[in-house]
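thread: overnight batch results

M.L. [08:02]
morning all. the overnight job finished for the chain we discussed friday. pasting input first so we're all looking at the same thing
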Amino acid sequence: MTLLSFNVLGVYGDSSIGGANQMVLLLSGFVAMLLARSNGVTWLHLFDSVSHSLGQTGSALIILLLIGALSGAWLIGGVIPGMIYFGLDFLRPSFFLPATLLICSAVSIVTGSSWSTAATVGIALIGVGEGMGLSSAMTAGAVVSGAYFGDKISPLSDTTNLAPAMAEADLFDHIRYMFFTTIPTLLVALIVFVALSMGVDATHTETGVEVLQARIAEHFAISPWVFAPPLLVIVLIVRKVPAIPAILAGALAGLVVAGFFQQEALRALGAIDFRSGYRVLMDALTIETQIETGDSQINTLLKSKGMQGMLSTIWLIVSAMVFGGAMEGAGFLQCLGDALMRRAKTDRSLFASTVATCLGINLTASDQYLSIVVPGRMYAPLFKQRGLAPVNLSRTLEDSGTVTSALVPWNTCGAYQSGVLGVATGEYFVYAVFNWLSPITTLVVAYLGIRIKRLPDAADSLGEDP
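M.L. [08:03]
and the structure it wrote out:
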């Protein structure tokens, strides 16, 4: 953890996920193996543990690749530009902050990415908010809150897939179970932003929104058809279709919409015949796609990295799982888990310990994914021993690991959000209501015993239905 912190704070900054953190994780796993070998643990046992650890993330890694493909397909299909275009229609001065929260929530659900949300509509909304005379810290807090709502609950989000994978829970069970903490937290944040928006007088700022919409309309055919792909994914999810085919169907639907309705955007990317058109569509799925407009801000909105853009995340997850598998095979996680179990005398204290561990890793290891992977591997057997269903752990990981990463200045997420939005983490911290309230909500729910799902035949210590 010390080396990971040094990577971020002392050398690489928010670029540490480009390889430095991965190398530290692999080296740490190797050190754990050497220590285990000195205690008589065989290489075969250690590598079997690592293989088992990696095998648990197989589906999540495929989903991550498909999410990258979907983002590219939805860009050239006009889905993401359409969401931005219609979302900006809801902006009104007296309702600007709650509208910002809702717009960013909608975009982050569609894209599954807090980073993409901040780098697209987030940047635009910061400028509009400044024109209204609002504090940029307030606007940034609303942007970050909305961006992490989708990052936490969207089936297209990497962390939403990673958390249940670590806890050994079903993806859609995990999402449904998160509603009991996520929706109340969002409603409280919405009320706060409504209160903050009262009395704002800024009727002169709507021009900036109109200019942004006009630029988007120059390059994409904006119509209700652009919402067909996300609606298809929603229908498939409601019908309990597994995540992999649902996301793949959404990506292919995006390509179909692009082929029928976004001819100008395709031509701008070089599609002049069948062969070049096929290449443009495949490139949108796999590598970076950029619609050039001559305006740097609009260019940021109209950009996707495809499957290639997910490789650094996948690389980090694989390295973290190697480290986790080595630690488990060496018996170190079991020793740590036993020590924590002795301290966690009740179910409530186990939830509190999980939250504290996630927060601690966000502060020390400076990475969102590690705050999910390490506690997930550590606490999964402990939750089972308590008779608690895996969704309890996966929800707690999201409530405390995913969302708080943006509140730490030296965390990769905090550094990214601050850099993109141009607002220091310490300035928007208090206004990022959804982010700091989420771990509090999950602890309150656990303390009151609300919707604490238990394994079949487990003792019902908290009085909740299994």
